[in-house]
Protein backbone atom coordinates (compact mmCIF):
# COMPACT_ATOMS: atom_id res chain seq x y z
CA UNK A 1 0.00 0.00 0.00
CA UNK A 2 1.34 3.40 -0.95
CA UNK A 3 0.14 6.68 0.53
CA UNK A 4 0.65 10.35 -0.34
CA UNK A 5 -0.60 13.06 2.01
CA UNK A 6 -1.00 16.80 1.41
CA UNK A 7 -1.96 19.60 3.75
CA UNK A 8 -2.49 23.10 2.41
CA UNK A 9 -3.94 26.46 3.38
CA UNK A 10 -7.51 27.20 2.35
CA UNK A 11 -6.53 29.14 -0.77
CA UNK A 12 -8.11 28.43 -4.19
CA UNK A 13 -4.70 28.45 -5.89
CA UNK A 14 -3.69 25.30 -4.01
CA UNK A 15 -6.52 23.31 -5.61
CA UNK A 16 -4.61 23.20 -8.89
CA UNK A 17 -1.55 21.77 -7.16
CA UNK A 18 -3.65 19.13 -5.38
CA UNK A 19 -5.23 18.08 -8.69
CA UNK A 20 -1.85 17.77 -10.37
CA UNK A 21 -0.43 15.71 -7.54
CA UNK A 22 -3.51 13.46 -7.59
CA UNK A 23 -3.02 12.93 -11.33
CA UNK A 24 0.64 12.02 -10.86
CA UNK A 25 -0.15 9.63 -8.00
CA UNK A 26 -3.00 8.03 -10.00
CA UNK A 27 -0.73 7.51 -13.04
CA UNK A 28 1.97 6.01 -10.85
CA UNK A 29 -0.63 3.71 -9.25
CA UNK A 30 -1.60 2.38 -12.66
CA UNK A 31 -4.96 4.08 -13.11
CA UNK A 32 -5.90 3.85 -16.81
CA UNK A 33 -5.54 7.03 -18.87
CA UNK A 34 -9.27 7.05 -19.60
CA UNK A 35 -10.08 7.62 -15.92
CA UNK A 36 -7.55 10.35 -15.20
CA UNK A 37 -9.81 13.24 -16.22
CA UNK A 38 -12.56 11.89 -13.98
CA UNK A 39 -10.14 11.71 -11.05
CA UNK A 40 -8.75 15.18 -11.79
CA UNK A 41 -12.22 16.68 -11.87
CA UNK A 42 -13.49 14.87 -8.76
CA UNK A 43 -10.40 15.72 -6.70
CA UNK A 44 -10.60 19.33 -7.87
CA UNK A 45 -14.26 19.59 -6.86
CA UNK A 46 -13.63 18.01 -3.46
CA UNK A 47 -10.65 20.29 -2.78
CA UNK A 48 -12.46 23.41 -4.00
CA UNK A 49 -15.36 22.56 -1.70
CA UNK A 50 -13.00 22.02 1.24
CA UNK A 51 -11.20 25.31 0.57
CA UNK A 52 -14.51 27.16 0.37
CA UNK A 53 -15.83 25.59 3.58
CA UNK A 54 -12.60 26.21 5.51
CA UNK A 55 -12.47 29.83 4.35
CA UNK A 56 -15.94 30.38 5.83
CA UNK A 57 -15.61 28.24 8.99
CA UNK A 58 -11.94 28.13 9.99
CA UNK A 59 -9.60 29.98 7.62
CA UNK A 60 -6.54 29.02 9.65
CA UNK A 61 -7.25 25.27 9.34
CA UNK A 62 -5.56 23.23 6.62
CA UNK A 63 -7.29 21.17 3.96
CA UNK A 64 -6.04 17.58 4.13
CA UNK A 65 -5.79 15.27 1.12
CA UNK A 66 -4.75 11.63 1.38
CA UNK A 67 -4.23 9.38 -1.66
CA UNK A 68 -3.80 5.63 -1.24
CA UNK A 69 -3.55 2.60 -3.44
CA UNK A 70 -4.41 -0.73 -1.89
CA UNK A 71 -5.72 -4.01 -3.30
CA UNK A 72 -6.39 -2.50 -6.73
CA UNK A 73 -8.37 0.47 -5.40
CA UNK A 74 -7.24 4.10 -5.75
CA UNK A 75 -8.70 6.22 -2.92
CA UNK A 76 -8.60 9.96 -2.33
CA UNK A 77 -9.81 11.44 0.95
CA UNK A 78 -10.35 15.19 1.34
CA UNK A 79 -10.94 16.57 4.84
CA UNK A 80 -12.13 20.04 5.84
CA UNK A 81 -13.26 21.81 9.02
CA UNK A 82 -16.92 22.32 8.16
CA UNK A 83 -20.27 20.59 8.36
CA UNK A 84 -21.61 18.37 5.55
CA UNK A 85 -24.53 20.81 5.32
CA UNK A 86 -22.16 23.74 4.63
CA UNK A 87 -22.33 22.86 0.96
CA UNK A 88 -25.82 21.47 0.49
CA UNK A 89 -29.11 22.72 -0.91
CA UNK A 90 -32.15 21.39 0.96
CA UNK A 91 -35.05 20.05 -1.10
CA UNK A 92 -38.70 20.76 -0.33
CA UNK A 93 -39.05 17.29 1.25
CA UNK A 94 -36.21 17.98 3.69
CA UNK A 95 -33.67 15.88 1.77
CA UNK A 96 -30.93 17.25 -0.45
CA UNK A 97 -31.25 18.23 -4.09
CA UNK A 98 -29.43 16.02 -6.59
CA UNK A 99 -27.37 17.12 -9.60
CA UNK A 100 -30.28 17.35 -12.13
CA UNK A 101 -32.29 19.64 -9.85
CA UNK A 102 -29.25 21.73 -8.97
CA UNK A 103 -28.54 22.39 -12.66
CA UNK A 104 -32.17 23.19 -13.55
CA UNK A 105 -32.24 26.91 -14.53
CA UNK A 106 -35.90 27.09 -13.44
CA UNK A 107 -34.95 26.68 -9.81
CA UNK A 108 -33.03 29.94 -9.77
CA UNK A 109 -30.00 28.31 -8.19
CA UNK A 110 -27.49 29.43 -10.77
CA UNK A 111 -27.92 26.75 -13.41
CA UNK A 112 -28.42 29.36 -16.14
CA UNK A 113 -25.10 30.99 -15.25
CA UNK A 114 -23.43 27.61 -15.59
CA UNK A 115 -25.10 26.84 -18.90
CA UNK A 116 -23.69 30.01 -20.47
CA UNK A 117 -20.20 29.60 -19.00
CA UNK A 118 -17.24 28.50 -21.06
CA UNK A 119 -14.53 26.32 -19.43
CA UNK A 120 -11.99 29.01 -20.27
CA UNK A 121 -13.99 31.51 -18.19
CA UNK A 122 -12.50 30.08 -14.99
CA UNK A 123 -8.81 30.02 -14.20
CA UNK A 124 -7.57 26.64 -13.01
CA UNK A 125 -8.36 26.46 -9.31
CA UNK A 126 -10.31 29.73 -9.25
CA UNK A 127 -13.32 29.87 -6.97
CA UNK A 128 -16.36 30.16 -9.29
CA UNK A 129 -18.06 32.58 -6.90
CA UNK A 130 -15.09 34.93 -7.23
CA UNK A 131 -15.37 34.71 -11.03
CA UNK A 132 -19.00 35.84 -10.88
CA UNK A 133 -20.71 32.49 -11.34
CA UNK A 134 -23.49 31.65 -8.92
CA UNK A 135 -22.91 27.97 -8.22
CA UNK A 136 -25.64 26.42 -6.13
CA UNK A 137 -24.58 24.93 -2.81
CA UNK A 138 -24.12 21.18 -3.09
CA UNK A 139 -23.20 21.08 -6.77
CA UNK A 140 -19.64 19.95 -6.02
CA UNK A 141 -20.75 16.96 -3.96
CA UNK A 142 -23.48 16.10 -6.50
CA UNK A 143 -20.94 16.13 -9.34
CA UNK A 144 -18.51 14.01 -7.36
CA UNK A 145 -21.23 11.45 -6.65
CA UNK A 146 -21.89 11.25 -10.39
CA UNK A 147 -18.24 10.74 -11.28
CA UNK A 148 -16.86 8.41 -8.65
CA UNK A 149 -17.47 4.67 -8.24
CA UNK A 150 -17.75 4.90 -4.46
CA UNK A 151 -18.21 8.12 -2.47
CA UNK A 152 -18.59 8.42 1.29
CA UNK A 153 -19.29 11.70 3.05
CA UNK A 154 -19.03 11.63 6.82
CA UNK A 155 -18.05 13.61 9.89
CA UNK A 156 -14.50 13.56 11.16
CA UNK A 157 -14.04 11.15 14.07
CA UNK A 158 -13.44 14.06 16.44
CA UNK A 159 -16.72 15.63 15.28
CA UNK A 160 -15.49 18.83 13.63
CA UNK A 161 -15.11 18.64 9.88
CA UNK A 162 -16.23 16.66 6.87
CA UNK A 163 -14.40 13.76 5.22
CA UNK A 164 -15.11 13.08 1.54
CA UNK A 165 -13.70 9.70 0.48
CA UNK A 166 -13.64 8.83 -3.23
CA UNK A 167 -12.59 5.38 -4.47
CA UNK A 168 -12.00 3.94 -7.92
CA UNK A 169 -11.64 0.21 -8.61
CA UNK A 170 -8.70 0.05 -11.03
CA UNK A 171 -9.68 -3.38 -12.37
CA UNK A 172 -13.13 -2.08 -13.34
CA UNK A 173 -11.52 0.99 -14.91
CA UNK A 174 -9.19 -1.19 -17.01
CA UNK A 175 -12.10 -3.40 -18.10
CA UNK A 176 -14.09 -0.27 -18.98
CA UNK A 177 -11.19 1.03 -21.11
CA UNK A 178 -10.95 -2.32 -22.90
CA UNK A 179 -14.70 -2.40 -23.56
CA UNK A 180 -14.61 1.15 -24.93
CA UNK A 181 -11.66 0.33 -27.20
CA UNK A 182 -13.27 -2.89 -28.50
CA UNK A 183 -17.04 -2.31 -28.68
CA UNK A 184 -19.15 -5.36 -29.54
CA UNK A 185 -20.33 -5.28 -33.13
UniProtKB/TrEMBL annotation:
Tell me yes or no: is Transport among this UniProt entry's keywords.
no
Keyword tags? ATP-binding, Kinase, Nucleotide-binding, Serine/threonine-protein kinase, Transferase
- Write down the superkingdom of origin: Bacteria
Domain Histidine kinase/HSP90-like ATPase positions: 8-168
What GO molecular function annotation could you give as one example from this UniProt entry? protein serine/threonine kinase activity
What the entry lists under InterPro entries is as follows: Anti-sigma-factor_SerPK (IPR050267), HATPase_C_sf (IPR036890), HATPase_dom (IPR003594)
Against Pfam families, the record matches this protein to:
HATPase_c_2
Give positions of region: Disordered.
Answer: 109-129
Keyword hit for Kinase: yes
Question: Per its UniProt record, what PANTHER family does this chain match?
Answer: ANTI-SIGMA-F FACTOR RSBW, ANTI-SIGMA-F FACTOR RSBW-RELATED
Name assigned to this protein: ATP-binding protein
Which organism does this sequence originate in? Frankia nepalensis
Q: What is the lineage of its organism?
A: Bacteria, Bacillati, Actinomycetota, Actinomycetes, Frankiales
Amino acid sequence: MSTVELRFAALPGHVRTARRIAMAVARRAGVPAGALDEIRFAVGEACLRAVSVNRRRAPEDLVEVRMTTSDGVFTVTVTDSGEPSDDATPAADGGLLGAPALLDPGLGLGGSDLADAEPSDLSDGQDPAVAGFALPPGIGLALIEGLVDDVQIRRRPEGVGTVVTMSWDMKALVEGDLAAANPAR
